[in-house]
Fold these 4 entries.
Entry 1:
Amino acid sequence: LLHICRTVLTCVGSLQLHRNSLAGHANLIRQTNCTTLLHSEGFPISGIIERCQLETVQVPELETLLNESPSKVFPYNKTFEQARYDPCIVMHTSGSTGLPAPVTCTHWSINTIDWHHLVPPLNDRPSVWGPFFNERRRNYLAYPITASSGIGAGIADICFSNITTVLGPPEQATAKTLEEMVQYADIDSASCVPAT
């Protein structure tokens, strides 16, 4: 993620909803001045490339990223103060009321999640975001990882609460899914959409 922030700031890393139309993808690319499209194998890029004329980079598959061979180091040398207003991640709205619109989260806006750890107790009652969330060890993330909410919640948990995010099946989580995650995935918390 840091490497992407550092080297491809104008790349929309958020063409995450496969249900978006070509017009929706093209609109996001134009609005963010994207010049490079990072994609996984099998992502349908031909229409996007034809319409937007982007450089493309196919990212390695998960097995490659998780192997134990040494990888090249890409240092990120900016201090927080220097990077505070730089984009950290670009996500997008669902497009339910028109074309999807980009939402740029800066390092500062993402960091507000961590500031919750500094909220002191009120009348001897601890803040929910600090101590309570830090008690979690393995959190089932029922938000779709292809949606901004899933990406945001996943990043927040991993980076600021030091927990393992457990992903379930790609389809909408149900009560049965949640029951099976409790039974088999060794979770001690869950972040669910209201429909679950």
Entry 2:
Amino acid sequence: GGREAGNPAARERLGIGMTSPNTAALAATRAGTEVAIRPYRDDDSASLLDCIVELQDAERALDDRLRPGRVIASDYLVAMLEECRQYAGQVFVLEVEGAVAGFTTVYTHVPFDRLDEPPGDYAIVAELLVRREYRRRGYARALLAHGERYAAAQGAAELRIGVLSDNTAARTLYLDYGFRPYIETLSKSLRGNGKT
């Protein structure tokens, strides 16, 4: 949600919008809670669809022009998995006590596609969500770290992430994690309602 469908390079350019290096499941105990970050499996699809709905609806709260999560979730999952194939990516799920508590999607070889960009490619965290009831426990940071390790293991030299400008909590996390602003896309409505 809030991300331009299709080309992740275009998404990143617009400023919209994790595993160990061997992609084995990571298990950790945090205050007696069993936590794992592992690759997506087909049997995760129902839970991942719920995560996509929550992510889209959260972004829709910031931009009411976006379509409801339930309307896009199925097609979005199909597109996300196709982009994983296209850009050497992976969806990772955060599992807490056996329940899917969030996910991240990392594409590791997204080509720069404009003449005024550097040659080569980059990695991007295309999606990141921790479900509402699991927030404020460090899981988003763990997903970021997992994605970073995965991207580095796949040979990526640069990792990017997009964020809606009004998503201050996510922006603060990403800046604190070490991401730096690179490009901003500013928007102005031409319909006179002040909304972009």
Entry 3:
Amino acid sequence: SRQKGFDADQRIVISSIGTEDFDFSKFRTFKKSIQGHASIINVTAAWSLPGFYTPGGSVFSRSESPEERVHLSHNVVDYDFIKTLGLSLATGREFTEDRMTSEKVVMLNETAVKALGYSNPEEAIEKVISYHWKVADYAKLKIIGVVKDFNSRSPGMPVRPEIFMFSNTVWQYGQYYYFIAHVSPGQHQETVAFLE
């Protein structure tokens, strides 16, 4: 429901689509093959979804303060994650195919913005944070968007600070476990049959 910060209505979820050697080219072909169906509004994919929470996290810091590290839950997501799930941006932009480059960019939720010490979402945009994995300063990541907080776990549990990374760019083991389609009202059964 919208009270949780996301919209679950008219969404179809397919689970167990990813592995450690997930072939992203095959996924792109599959995604393009269904996007033209009349009942499908948007499609995306992710490591974790609200109601299908997959634990995972890493250590990050503001680049200017590498000693002040915080643990953020991480999610690996595809293009149009925000739009497809009916989430809201506090500021900035999400990952869209027409704007992606080789630059390593991420989105944060509002709780992660606070955890990293930024005074508000606008201050975080275009800032660079450090990703500490195996080595002290594994990657530099630019913040392009801040997602309004939503509950990815059970209702009533506190919202965790979360970072959203684009597939297979920032985290080399990035993969998808879930495929999500937003379908037109009244077209749910027809779309399920089409996807099968």
Entry 4:
Amino acid sequence: LENLYIENFNFEKTTSDNRMGLIRYAQDATINNVHVKGAKLESKVNVPITAGVIVADANGGNVIITNSSAVEVEVVQDVNEIVSQNRIGGLVGTFNGSRIENCYIRDISIDIGNAIETAIGGIVGYLYKGDITNCYAEGKMEAVGTRVGGIVGNIDNIGRTTVTNCYSYVEIVNTEEYVGGIIGKDPDGASNATNT
């Protein structure tokens, strides 16, 4: 997928399928020069969500995302019961691929009020494997739950990950543990973060 510009992308989740995004699932895919202006992802179902404006779940093979962005983004989970295991990123919910490069998100607002064991990141919510280079995030993230980061919420230790030349200017409102300006939680030093 390449050379795409979208305005006013709205996704309201009312079923039990947990993936929310322009692309629900990506495997062995190249995404280049995709830009979204004005996006709202909203869940009203008491199930965990995997959400990202461009890709909800990039979890397999050689996934490459380059030169892409989202601005004026709102992600909301409006439920009464406590939900666990959310994976929410501004651009990508979960990433288990090759690389994300030269991407950004601006004016992001994430409000997940009734959740625990959540991974929320400005670029990627839950990073299994891959390199994030020359990316930035700006906005506000408010969540009740752990693992919130300006660039990546949680890094798993199953594979090689790097975060290089990235910055975040994100206001994070969270009283729980594992909150970071760049990375929320990085167990066992799984990543190699430089110039961030």
